[in-house]
Write a structure and sequence with these properties.
Number of strands: 17
Radius of gyration: 23 Å
Number of helices: 20
Strand order of the largest sheet: 5-4-1-6-7-8-11-10-9
Distance between the termini: 25 Å
Largest sheet: 9 strands, mixed
Shape: globular
Bound molecules: adenosine-5'-diphosphate-glucose
């Protein structure tokens, strides 16, 4: 056992995701590298302690000259990162096209209009081809880094073909795949034209992980209904070969937030915000500006709340931070204008010369600002229409040990399964129900707030990112690769 632990302590983990944890920007002959924000990055930074980690992925820039590619590769090496280079057409067809226009909406139950979907089918074949080619490019880079004994962990819907490409290159390679989004009901999944090929590719992995038991069950039933394979409590069986499928709920690094609250910088910012919002309850939303996050629904619920509860006007404000993403996609531009229009209307209806009910920011915040905002908030509103997990709710809980604020949480987020007992669960499609939840959250007695918070805090501090990664990788280590099994037989 001890020897095994020692072996694991020095084991190399190759983490493969579409995006590297750093974004690169060119400055002449040099590269400016910035740590990118996001759930996956913060979660995986925790795993470093137990494994020697190497990251493989796209750096978010297209580099056309060999000199530039070499210098970027060199700069990234100092951060333990290895770049995959994609050309413009691949980024357009694989990333904007197949990943973001096909898989992302489908996995989040976002129905495209029949017209849009029909128009999309014309380019679907070439996008799918680009998707497979891009996955092969990732595989080539992984293979160039791979040493015997390494474990390879593939992430997310961008890389469903990667396990297959890797196993074709080396059947002995230990390969795991984890999905950060929901996996939809098989009734939704089976409308995808390439449904079988994608499932078969994922099934070549040794371990397949999801955030919740429901997503794992949806995946297994897609395999049984579409591929005719056998689903077992352990996973999916194909002619005696079992692919393990299980739930591994992600977490955050709570200490990072708890310690930040003790720093002078955050304390100073907390003071500033408190005096700025004095005499007012603060509600908060922190989301990427994405259609899955239910931002318009949240705003409409707040509007209805103000309409029905005039005694709360000028006594509560909503701070909504919405980081723009995928800004070149038409649907996202439409969402931005829709959100701006609703915010304008509500501020126009309920604002006064000295008070605006909604503070809406279209930008990302620095870590210390985010921590301070979480700490002074009375009610956090997470109204996702679908969300794999939702780490914002975890981060809020980590920062609320003093205030013990209320978490209003969509029942369609993965987090509803882990924080459901402490949060107030809502259906984001029911605007009236949400407006009542807002009122009840603002009026909740301290005793109840404490009880609910303690429940959530205990979960967030016990189910950390580190524990998530350790569990996944150690289970992956324990799987017996099919090729090994054949030699044992
Ligand atoms: P996301 O959809 O990005 O992640 P989430 O899990 O909430 O959603 O993580 C967002 C991260 O970005 C958080 O760490 C948050 O602090 C940060 N962030 C958001 N807005 C910010 C802002 N304005 N300024 C600074 N930082 C900001 C995907 C899935 C989720 C899943 C994660 C991890 O969609 O369902 O939980 O991956 O698996």
């Amino acid at each position: 056992e001890k020897g095994q632990q020692q072996q694991r302590a020095t084991q190399r983990l190759l983490v493969v995701a579409n995006r590297l944890p750093v974004s690169a920007q060119r400055d002449g002959d040099n590269w400016d590298l910035k740590l990118s924000a996001g759930g996956l990055v913060s979660a995986l930074l925790g795993v470093k302690q137990n494994f020697e980690t190497r990251w493989i992925g796209w750096a978010g820039v297209n580099v056309h000259d060999e000199k530039g590619r070499m210098s970027l590769t060199e700069s990234l090496a100092s951060k333990g990162c290895v770049p995959v280079f994609l050309d413009d057409d691949t980024v357009d067809q694989y990333y904007n096209g197949y990943c973001n226009n096909v898989l992302w909406p489908l996995f989040h139950y976002i129905g495209l209009s029949q017209e849009d979907r029909l128009a999309g089918t014309r380019s679907l074949d070439s996008q799918f081809m680009a998707y497979k080619n891009a996955n092969q490019l990732f595989a080539d880079v992984v293979f160039s880094q791979y040493q015997e004994g390494d474990v390879v962990w593939c992430h997310d819907y961008h890389l469903m073909f990667l396990p297959k490409c890797l196993k074709e290159m080396d059947p002995q390679m230990k390969v795991g795949w984890f999905l950060h989004t929901p996996f939809p009901s098989s009734e939704i999944y089976r409308t995808l034209p390439m449904r079988s090929e994608l499932l078969k590719a994922v099934l070549t992995a040794d371990l397949i992980g999801f955030h919740t038991y429901d997503y794992a069950r949806h995946f297994v039933s897609a395999c049984t209904r579409i591929l005719g394979l056998e689903g077992t409590p352990e996973g999916v069986e194909d002619q005696g070969k079992l692919t393990r499928v299980a739930a591994f709920p992600i977490g955050i690094d709570p200490e990072r937030f708890i310690q930040a609250l003790e720093t002078d910088l955050v304390k100073c910012h907390i003071k500033l915000l408190r005096s700025r919002f004095e005499g007012c309850k603060v509600m908060l939303g922190v989301d990427r500006l994405d259609m899955i996050k239910g931002i318009p629904q949240k705003l409409l619920a707040f509007e209805l709340f103000l309409e029905k509860n005039p005694e709360w006007r000028e006594k509560v404000l909503l701070v909504q931070i919405a980081v723009p993403t995928r800004t070149d996609v038409h649907e996202y531009q439409r969402l931005t204008s829709q959100v701006h229009e609703i915010v304008g209307r509500i501020n126009g209806r309920f604002g006064t010369l000295t008070f605006m009910p909604i503070h809406h920011l279209d930008r990302s915040l620095a870590f210390h600002q985010l921590c301070a905002l979480y700490a002074i908030t009375d009610v956090l509103l997470v109204t996702s229409l679908r969300d794999g997990m939702n780490l914002v709710s975890y981060e809020f809980v980590a920062c609320q040990n003093e205030k013990k604020g209320v978490l209003v949480l969509s029942e369609f987020s993965g987090a509803a399964q882990s924080l459901g007992a402490g949060a107030m669960l809502v259906n984001p499609w029911n605007i009236e129900e949400m407006s009542i939840a807002i009122r009840d959250a603002l009026n909740m007695p301290e005793m109840e707030r404490k009880e609910r918070h303690n429940h959530n805090f205990s979960h967030v501090t016990h189910h950390t990112a580190q524990a998530w990664a350790d569990t996944f990788v150690s289970e992956l280590n324990d799987t017996i690769v099919e090729a090994e099994l054949r030699t044992l037989r």
